[in-house]
Design the sequence.
């Protein structure tokens, strides 16, 4: 299934789904590391139902929220109907509907691993940032390669995951795209017990027919990470 179709379908439930996935503490840490300032402009790329946007407008920023899914943007408009600080733009990762050097910050929460051309998507974030602007990516990465059987099973169940790469490769890709001073702000592992309570993860584990020990080993290879980088002042 394409990620657009998947997110169009889950748009109505996304607010509930994301509550068990992302924490406000992690979001706060990301804002503080990026040094977000009132009156500045931020892009929320792959904005979904607006988890990042909500935190940014609370801090007095203006936000351009971009997503490929009309249904997600419709949810966001409903939720923030009285917020004049948000502009909604329908668009794809590889060609963001934002002019060159237009924003002070670009945020991307749990977005890049769904994108078919992540390297192009990162370059697009370089393009829209003003020189010296900050990029904050929150995403999942691997500490070691997963066996093919597990990768294939995840793909079969959650067909919209395109990019599951090793942490070092992920950071290299951000540096190659033109970001400086790239640093990890936060890393969190997924407790195995929390995945057992998640129907999709449980289905993957059951489908694989592997022992709880093997499943725990695979889960321990996947972490979520916040990475911050700055667009250099000159090309
Ligand atoms: C896991 S959701 C995260 C949503 C939001 N950032 C949040 O914090 O709740 C990923 C979002 O990225 C969007 N997305 C995925 N691939 C995309 C692409 N290639 N171009 C634009 N948006 C994309 C999806 O439509 C979805 O709304």
Sequence:
């Amino acid at each position: 299934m394409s990620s657009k179709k998947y997110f169009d379908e889950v748009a109505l439930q996304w607010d509930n789904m994301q509550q068990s996935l992302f924490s406000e503490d992690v979001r706060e840490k990301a804002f503080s590391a990026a040094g977000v300032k009132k009156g500045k402009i931020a892009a929320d790329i792959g904005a979904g139902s607006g988890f990042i946007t909500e935190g940014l407008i609370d801090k007095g920023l203006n936000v351009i929220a971009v997503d490929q899914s009309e249904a997600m943007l419709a949810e966001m408009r409903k939720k923030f109907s009285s917020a004049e600080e948000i502009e909604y733009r329908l668009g794809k990762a590889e060609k963001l509907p934002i002019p060159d050097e237009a924003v002070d910050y670009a945020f991307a929460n749990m977005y890049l691993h769904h994108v078919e051309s992540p390297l192009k998507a990162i370059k697009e974030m370089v393009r829209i940032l003003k020189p010296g602007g900050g990029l904050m990516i929150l995403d999942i990465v691997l500490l070691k390669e997963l066996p093919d059987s597990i990768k294939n099973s995840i793909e079969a169940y959650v067909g919209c995951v395109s990019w599951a790469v090793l942490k070092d490769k992920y950071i290299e890709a951000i540096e190659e795209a033109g970001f400086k001073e790239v640093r990890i702000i936060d890393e969190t592992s997924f407790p195995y017990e929390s995945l057992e309570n998640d129907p999709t993860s449980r289905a993957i584990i059951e489908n694989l027919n592997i022992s709880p020990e093997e499943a725990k080993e695979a889960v321990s290879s996947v972490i979520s990470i916040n990475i911050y980088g700055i667009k250099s002042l000159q090309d």
